[in-house]
């Protein structure tokens, strides 16, 4: 491996903490309250703006509420393009798992709003029995002018069901990803057609313009992710320096560039890699395992999980690689001045290694503790490297494996006993914990850390499945967000009604 040894590496500005901005002075993202306000303004905005002009023009309460819900649902679906986890402005500070958790939650919220749109149209004062509503529903389904709205609704249901139950199952992941994106584009195009050809709401210039602005934001986000980024990813000029197998299931990929000034990152971040092709929608996210001071080289540890990752050790030196990044908030910028506790499961050791290399390269005085789990001792592919890097540092580690009799490793998965031993002598309230590993391991670890007295706000996570977390901290954030949203949309409906009636 050609990465420069940490002892010879000079600490760079990038390595110093805390960093209000990422390495190249890049803006690291909006805070959670700022994002929540932006989301609410954009999705409730069209209805509220129309309300200033007399409301979404419903003759009576229910059609009015139906129009309000329909416009809010469309705005929410449009915003799904922006919250897809590809924008640092959104996920840079709150983290990818919370962004994806929000993306999922907002999709269900948008579907619920769409449901309200339909139900409110079915209800009529004095005539709202099941039979009357069913008759009305069939009538709507058969109306030619509502065809695009009906198809958009079916697509919305399909999109959410396949997003929840088919992702990574039955279909190859990349096929699912393409289908998910294509269905989302079709859904919003049909929804916009339905809105602009049917809804009387669109007669209101303020509300209609606001909805168009959101549509343009969604379109711009697609262009950025699928046109600009793939082109830009090759501008940093990375090619493969070496690729090799470190164990039967883990490969190491080292990239290098002649123009390192075009790429910078903070330790622990990840990048989307496109190997050897341009303009692709089949890029894969991988954490950078090296430290910023290792540039112009970037190193990745890749577990065999499928087609691309399974052939990583065979990629020929010199192959061009598109690097879209850096992304992610698994960085030391999130840590306080207290001890750093690192919990890694399997290939979750990759971003942890980047943190360790940086702590070593900068001579960081904070105590560092590590619990790393792997299937076997052979899968602890960077154990010696970490122990060498941390020699002389206030450092303790426990290496766990699934097998018995593995030299220097303990058997089992991380439990309360391991945690108690590793934080022994430290103040848990001052610890910042970084967790990266399989979802189940992460969820267990969060519970153990909270029980051990580590504040939830000091637990930093990186999930490798590009999905929402389901641990105690994520659930708490989700509950809070649902309450805020319910309050905001309740108020939006009330304003629309008051303005119109
Ligand atoms: C933020 C982040 C950082 C990651 N860092 C690392 C790392 O350092 N080392 C490592 O080995 N793995 C990492 N992964 C996981 C890695 O991206 C997938 O294992 C890899 O993309 C599999 O690609 P494939 O073509 O070989 O597999 P496929 O056969 O295409 O898929 C196998 C499985 O990999 C996952 N996957 C595939 N493509 C993607 C994608 N575009 N986004 C998210 N998940 C995908 C899915 O769960 C899928 O079921 C990371 C994932 C994320 C989200």
UniProtKB/TrEMBL annotation:
Listed Pfam families: FAD_binding_6 (PF00970), Ferric_reduct (PF01794), NAD_binding_1 (PF00175)
Membrane topology label: Multi-pass membrane protein
Location (main, coarse): membrane
GO function term, MF aspect, one: oxidoreductase activity
Transmembrane segments: 27-52, 64-84, 105-126, 146-166, 178-196, 208-228, 481-500
UniProt entry keywords in alphabetical sequence: Membrane, Transmembrane, Transmembrane helix
Domain of life: Bacteria
Ranges where the record places region Disordered: 1-22
Name of the protein this chain belongs to: FAD-binding FR-type domain-containing protein
Provenance organism: Ciceribacter ferrooxidans
